[in-house]
Structures are given as structure tokens and as C-alpha cells.
Amino acid sequence: MSAAHAPLEAPQQEHDLSLSRLIVVSNREPYEHRLVKDHLIWERTSGGLISALDPMMRRLGGTWIAWGSGKADRDVVDEEMVVEVPPDAPTYRLRRVWLENGEVKGGYQGYANQVLWPLCHLTLDRVAYRKAFWHAYQAMNARFADVVLGELAEKPGFVWVHDFHLALLPGLIKASLPNQPVAIFWHTPWPGPDAFRILPERRELLESLLAADLVMFQTESFLHCFLECAKEFLGTDVLSDEHHIDYKGHRTRLVVRPISINYQSWAERAQSPQVTRAMDVLRNLHIFQPTVRIGLGVDRLDYTKGLLKRLWAIDAFFQQYPQYRGHFTFIQIAVPTRGDVEAYRSYRELIRETVNEINMRYGTISHPGSPQASRWRPIEFREGRIGMDTLAAYYRMADLALVSSVYDGMNLVAKEYVASQFEEKGVLLVSHLAGAAEELTDALVINPYDPEGVADSIRQALEMPFGERRERMRRMRAYLEAHDIRAWADDCLRDAGILPQQDSPSFE
Asked: pLDDT tens across 223-256, in order?
């Protein structure tokens, strides 16, 4: 909007955002219960969302509403479907939502994971739209809305919704309670109008999000894409500061709050004796010679992470720089995900095949058949989940870490690697299409669609003088220490009016 245009006058809103009780709503639950050999066990679930919000909820209390599944999850709740968590020292309520099979398959696996996920990550050829998916997605969101409204009927609170699974929830809540304060954090990227226009329900999603009082994004570029979509498909009026939208008499504030990690936890873990011991175990496991330099990738087996393009870049690296054959190994930690979706199963097989092809092309075995036989493989592929100490050991060992996402809301692996590099010897390479690139400006920024260019950046990282490596890593670590998950949570809560501006609680 031109600076000559006067800002629109804010519509009057009757509700007060400074409600102290917090109600978090997400698809995934922070704690799950399982039966193992007839014994009930519980564990905290993984992922950046849980790591970010669970400490905050333990500090502030409130209610977390999320999808529950399995007999054990049902066995432990009361008549209101509530269980106190964490189970060993309860500080807040987990209220579970039960979804029908059709809502899971059509709404979660279908519309959320096969339509919205690839759309938001600009992998449009993977969008598998079905009208039945949309209907199931509506039903899934309506079921969440019923639970949220039931919670609010018991006691008022501020509703904070998370991510693309629940895009219809703000609109559903506001339809019943127009003055109820609602915020939503959009963790994934937001596509521009040219991509978003392929979605038949683009108007319904935009109108629901604009029913919220506050919409949070990871980066300025994603916020800008949302603004452009709102103008293109709704004809909305955008204020001159471009951080508010007025639509049908309601004002929605837009903010950028890049999510982060628990910096102190990762930094301390990396220096622990158990991680040092884990490094020795891993060197023996991978039969590394002391002179071998190590690269690292840690990703879910998701096509948005650019694993295939990363493998092409590693292939190009050994083609362009044969002097590194036998002297550089790339370790890829691949965590299975969404195995119930065919696109993910076929992608996993393609990754396995490509790893084998590259290892066959360049790998060596000296003195075959000898007890002292040594072997070198360009890629060490480790598929499966690993523990936190093992992951920290990999982060410490790696001379470089490579993030090659084709589009990514943030990518917390980049931040975890930096936090773990207390020796300040490693180099981070990060895709310019990942949100982390906008914050970690001392990383080497790569284009995942340019394998030869990525290969050149790998060589640059390996040959970078120690002084430059140390200064780059030192600056990134200082930034993350100041902008950790505690700071992120504080900022979000202040945006919502839950915390006064001067408050800064410590989320242990």
C-alpha cells in the first residue's frame, strides 16, 4: 500500500486479549500413553512444537487440547477426557479429542498431509486433492471446535491454535463465540497466490484464519505471501504497516515469531560425558579413520527436506572433487514419517536406492577378505529414531551440517547443530528456502536445486580456515542464545496479551 494512503481506522472489538488462562490446541498431543506387555507407560512426544510449548505450559498451567489415540490414552482420562500432565509431576491439563476413522484418513492423512502440506511447501505435483478429503477435514476441525467450546464453557481462556491441521478452527470458534480471543501460529510456509490458487477451498481457509485476532508466521516472507493471498482472493484492505488486515469489520494482527530451540539444553548436553562417550561409540560403529572429515544431515524422510537433491549434490561433490574420496563421509540420519501415505513410502525407497548407487559408485574396500579389511563409503545411511545423546554426539562430530529443504517453515536441526557446536569448528550449510536462513546469516546459504553449487559449498566448508569457522559459529551461537525458545514463548505470549510487556518468566 502506498504511504500516501491513510491507515484504516481499527474496528472496535469488545473482548480483552489479556485473559490469563491459556488453552493450546494442536493436532499432536504432548504426552501419550501406551500399553507395553500389559504395563501402562507414558512418554513425551517428539517434535519442535512439543519442545516449544510443553515447558511453557508446565510454567503457566492451563489446558492443552489434542488428538488422543489408542486404548491406553482412553484408559487414563476422566469423564471430561482430561488427564493431568506431565504424569510424574502434573502442572496442566491434557484434554484429548477422539477422531473417527474417516476423519483420520480423510482429514488428517488426506486433506492435511496430502493437500495442505505439499501445497504449503510448493511441491504441487504431490497434491492429491479429493473432495471427500475436504469434507473429512471439515468434520475433524468441527470435532476439535466442539471440545474447545466445551472447555470454554467451563472457564474462559485465550485459545492458541497451532498449524495447518486446524486451519478452520478459528472460524468455527468465532462463529459460536464472536468475542472469544483466538490466535493461530502457522508453523509451515505460506505459499504465494500463484500456488495457493490451486486450492478449491482457498477462500474458506483465508476467512477462517482472518477470524482469528492474531496470526503468527515464521518469517516476513511467509507473512507477505499471506497478505498477497488475502488481497488476491478476498479483496481485503491491508493497513499501511502491512501487519494488520481488516475483513468484514474484524481486525487481524499479523506478526513474525520464528520458533527456536532450548539453546542451553543443547549446549550443555553436547558437553556432557555421556555425549563424549557416544562419540567414541559412533566412530567405532562407522569405522571412521581419524583423517576422515564428516558431513551430517538429520531429517524426517519427507520430500520437503530435499534428501534426494542432497544426495545428487553429494554425488556431484565426489565427481567434481575426487581428492575427497576416502577422506569425507556424509552421515544421513533419516527418521521415518507418515508411513501410511504412499508418497512417503515410495520416496523412502527412492532414497535408499540412490544411497546404494552412490556408495557402489565411489565406495572402496581395501584388501578384500582380509581380517584387517577397511572400507570407505561416501554415505553412511542410518534410518530410524535415535536418542538425544546420540544426536548431540553426531552434531559435535560433524565438520559440516547440510540442510537442503526445498521449502521449510524454519528447520530446527540447523539451530540444534549450532547450539551443539561449543568447540566452534563446524560449518552450517542451509537452504535459502528454509526459514532458518533468514536468521542464521553466518551459515553458507545454498540452493538445493543446484547440485554443483551445493558441491562447491561443501568444498568451501571443508577448506574454510579455522578462524573463519570459529567466528561464524560464534556469532550464530550468540544469536541463538539470545533468541532461544524461552524468548520465543515470551514474545508470543506478549503478542497475545497473556503476559504484560515487562514480564519474562523462566520456562524450565
From this structure: 999 999 999 999 877 775 789 999 999 999 999 9
Q: How far apart are CA 22 and CA 63, in angstroms?
A: 7
CA distance to 223, 305, 415, 438, 461, per residue, from 410 (Å): 13, 11, 9, 9, 22
The distance from CA 140 to its chain's CA centroid, rounded to whole angstroms, is 22
Tell me what the mean pLDDT of segment 368-380 comes to.
Answer: 70
Within a 13 Å sphere around the CA of 98, how many CA atoms are in the beta-carbon half?
10
| Other Cβ atoms closer than 10 A to 91 | 14
SS (H, E, C) 188-237: CCCCCHHHHCCCCCHHHHHHHHCCCCEEEECCHHHHHHHHHHHHHHHCCE
Burial status of residue 361 (CB atoms within 10 A of its CB: 0-12, 13-18, 19 or more)? exposed
Under 8 Å between Cβ of 155 and 127: no
Terminus-to-terminus CA distance in the chain, angstroms?
Answer: 43
Query: What span, in angstroms and rounded, lies between the C-alpha atoms of 122 and 112?
Result: 14
Cell numbers given for 102: 474417516
| Domains and their CATH numbers in the chain | 22-260+487-496 (3.40.50.2000), 263-361+377-483 (3.40.50.2000)
139: number of Cβ within 10 Å: 15
Q: What's the pTM value of the predicted model, to 2 decimals?
A: 0.91
At position 262, the amino acid (one-letter code) is N
